[in-house]
Task: structure prediction
Amino acid sequence: MGAAFFPVLFFTALWGGVGIAMPIMTPKGPHQNLIRCILMLTAACCWLFWLCCYMAQMNPLIGPKLKRDVVAMIGRSWNNPIVAG
Amino acid sequence: MRVFKKRQTKVKSFFRSEDMDLCQLLLHTENAFDCLIEVGHHGAVQFNNVYDEDRLLNNLYSKKVTQCYELLRIVDSLHTYIVQLHVNEIFYPDVDRENRLKEKDLAKYSDSLKRIHVEASAVTEHYYRLDSRRNRMMEHSFALNKANKYMVSDMGSELLYSESTVIGLVQDATTTSGAYPAHLNYMIGCIRADKFYSFELLLYRLCSFNLIIRFSEMPSPVYEYHYGYKPERVRKFAILMMASSTMIWPKVLKICAHYHVNIYDCPSSASQREDKVKELSQEIVNVEKVLKEAELMRRQILEVAGRDLFIIRVNLRKALKVYDLMNRLRLVGGVEVPRYLLAEVYIPSSDVPEVEVILRNASRISGGADNIDSSDEDEMNDMKTMPNTTPYPIEADFQPLEDMSAGAILLKKNRLVNHMPPTYFRLNKFTRGFQNLIDAYGMADYKELNPAPYTIITFPFLFAVMFGDLGHGILLILFSSLMIWKHREIEKYQINATSENEILNILYAGRYIILLMGVFSVYMGLVYNIVMAKGFNLFGSSWSCRYNETTVYDPAFHVTLDSSHPHFYSGHPYPLGMDPVWAVCGQDSITTTNSLKMKMAIVLGISQMMFGLGLAAANCVLMNRKADLILVVIPQMIFMLCLFGYLVFLIFYKWMSYGGHKPAPYNAACAPSVLITFINMMLMKKEDPVENCLDYMYPNERMIEFALVGIAFCTIPILLAGKPIYLMRRRRKMQQERERDFKRMRRQTIAEMRSTMRYTDDDNSETSRQKSVDNEEEHEMSEIWIHSGIHTIETVLGSVSHTASYLRLWALSLAHDQLSDVLWHMVLTKGFANTLPLYYGVPVLMATFFAWAILTVAILVMMEGLSAFLHTLRLHWVEFQSKFFGGAGESFKAFNFPTSNQRS
Result:
């Protein structure tokens, strides 16, 4: 089905806030431009990194290979119980 | 004269270098010293051309320079005495602020230093003489003791073996019976232990068995004093020499003089020898009393000297620096009585008012005595002219004129200069570390865009892409926070330490870089889902597996979750970073993580390079280089976008369009390789499609790719020939203008071209230019074509190699991840898995944990951190800055006194 709606919106709003809203609200001073540059670069870098990681997993080509103990661990810890029979 | 007016300048960030004003500084010889002392403390003035090798000195202050050297030599001598006696030399941390130097202080320093030096030298010489005298008496006493003991007890038996004695006895037997043997002669002295064996060997070869030597080592070493050298502790031997004949003594004495043997008197009878020893002991006691008094006096004098020696030394070094600078300035004024020093200086524009205030204050302070004298003269004049009325305006005019002539004057020069102004950035403790990274590569040109503000974020970010691990990032944050929190103690330690700690200085200077590297590593740890090689499951994995017991307990169990089945993949990716299932499936996740990290490295690399080209465009706009913008930077951008921007598009398109759960022809089997697609695009090649798959990723792919390649290759001729042709046309136009008596501007053209190629422009004189105009034009034109060709080749090939260079982001990230995994499985897991009894199991687990912790810090944080740091540095210096940064500027070298510390 591709991307879910909420994570994309959440992280885009988060880094958009850091990269657009916070530079607008930076108080005036000798380092205002520097702070704005830092905020915008941080937002752009972190958002791009998250986006690449998210999009790479949107439509996986292959699935993971699991061993017996891993399946048992997943069954016990991740709420995927092994069915009797 | 026009006095420079105050101008309020807004303080800017360090995106570009500060505005520089070229000024002329006129100093009066009476207060130039005090003015320059204040300027040195402020540290915002650069004196031009004063330290060139061919600079002529005005020799007005050569005597002062020599005097400062002499006084510093006296200071070093006193310091040597102080170190010898371990006297406390008081250290003043605030010497730069509270003990500021004035020119009249130098006379006081000179007088007090010379007086203390004379006293200290006299007392030291006296002490040395007393100690030498005591040492000689001790040697004499010891030698007498040994000789007396030897001769009383062993004289009879030893003499029997002497060859000459036997001969003497034989002769005596033939002439008379019972006669006493010949009278023995003996001599005592002291010799240095290291010279004794060669001395003994030489005497044996010279005198053979006619001379008998006995020696004994003194119980403790003694000091030897030689003028101009440090006192030396030496081991000494007391020697006793006996001979049957007096004929060999002159030779022996010569050899003793050559070997610096101290010869002492030795009475012939035992009782006299014992009396002599007692007498010497009494004298030694008396001399030791006087010696203690002398040492006490010496120590007192040196303590007085040590009280102020640090201040005097620091201020003398400053005075030496100032006098050397004054000796290099140009003298102006009358020929017979020069009164002014002239200097050409660069000052940051925003600092000019402050420098003016400093110079005015220094002039006023220095002119205090003159003011008193002036007021005294006025009073005398008033008394003399009491009956008459002096016109007030005349006196009013006289006073300001004197003040004007005595003060320092700072004039701004507006004429154009050939050389580029120096580069100066106003930094604070946060930004200085990042600026140092850039300056290590090259100093920015004047008013060129500075890479450092952007490096504040991109450097820690790219470091974290390679180093990303939440646990290791937290370690970096803790370490840098400790240094930031303890910065007062560290700075105090750096000031007071007697030896410099290089590693601490480097880490302390980069503490904010380390902090940001830690913060971004924590973020990367969240996205990579790694905490010390382990993952965490915050939001629930998108993958699930439901099997029954029969399937799970099958011995051949080994399953791959099918991404096309809803039971295994939910259809929505893990919201933040990597899915935890890839952390638990072990080595099988490398295929997926490698694919992700390689594509991510390409995306980040091309983004940074495009950002660099954007900065190049901004730089051209700010420096008013439209030709460079249109003919160099924009073709580069088009080339990069058409080829490597398309590569990024392919990556994103594949991520969106192809998936295991999609029907053919967009399923896993049909997914094309991005790299092969890109190579086929460059080679304009077509491959046969796989069965049931399309031969394109999107409609009209072939046509679009051919168009993009065509556009990219069209930019290469523009890069190669655009600017040279533009310069040729401009030169032709300038020649036409020159025929119309317009001013020539060829130098700027060459400067533009060469600054783009990162060459410094030459200052060609007008005469040589007129001589060979035609040849020079041809030479310059061929040079321009060569540079343009090199630049084009570097751009085209550099695009490919720089893109490939960013793959190191993936390589180091993989290495860090695998090393972390190895430490976990090979070290710590063995501690967890041990089945020993509790009494032994807990210590084993503790030992295993400490081994794992130490190896984690030493290898993963330190070694891997340094490796990632260096690779990030290369990515910034070469891949990023080569797009826009010239780096051929000169740094602003202000006349400045460094902060005084214990080693000053």
User: Anything to note?
Assistant: Residues 433-539+592-622+809-888 of chain B form one domain. Chain B has 28 helices and twelve strands. The longest helix of chain B spans residues 270-328.
